[in-house]
Write a structure and sequence with these properties.
about 150 residues, alpha+beta, 3-stranded antiparallel β-sheet, 3-stranded mixed β-sheet, 5 helices, about 20% strand, elongated
């Protein structure tokens, strides 16, 4: 690790600690040249796939956008934040375990619909009504019958 003060390439680790959750390692380092101390943090760099939108453009996967769209469907519903967090974790886990470098936005929407169906049927219908953009009332009725 290069020293941020003098740029020397030889630093020594004087202390190492893991976070309570075990997902971050904190290291105290000392520069061999200027003798200054600094802290570094080490965490896994996990790359989620790029999202390919319907128009063909690509965007980084953004959990905040996913949370916001689920939040709209879950607005004023009796669903806890923990349930939403767990659903988001399951979606991200599916994306990571797939190993794909890209995921279609339609596939991502299907994952969201599956999770919403598990935690709140009304939110599922709300999300589906926007996501699937029904052409007529009969399609909407069929979705409700399927639940």
């Amino acid at each position: 690790m290069r020293c941020p003060f003098c740029g020397h390439g030889d630093t020594q680790v004087s202390e190492t600690r893991e976070s309570d959750e075990g997902d971050v390692v904190r290291r105290r380092r000392r520069c061999q040249s200027c003798d200054k101390r600094f802290t570094t943090y080490e965490r896994a760099d996990i790359a989620l796939p790029m999202v390919v939108k319907k128009d063909g453009t690509r965007a980084d996967f953004d959990p905040a956008k996913l949370r916001a769209s689920m939040g709209l469907a879950l607005r004023k519903r009796p669903v806890s934040i923990e349930q939403v967090d767990a659903a988001l974790e399951r979606i991200q886990e599916k994306l990571l375990t797939s190993g794909a470098r890209e995921v279609a936005s339609t596939k991502l929407g299907e994952h969201v619909m599956r999770e919403l169906k598990r935690i709140d049927k009304v939110a599922y219908v709300r999300f589906a009504s926007v996501y699937r953009s029904f052409e007529d009332v009969d399609e909407f009725r069929q979705l409700i019958r399927d639940i």
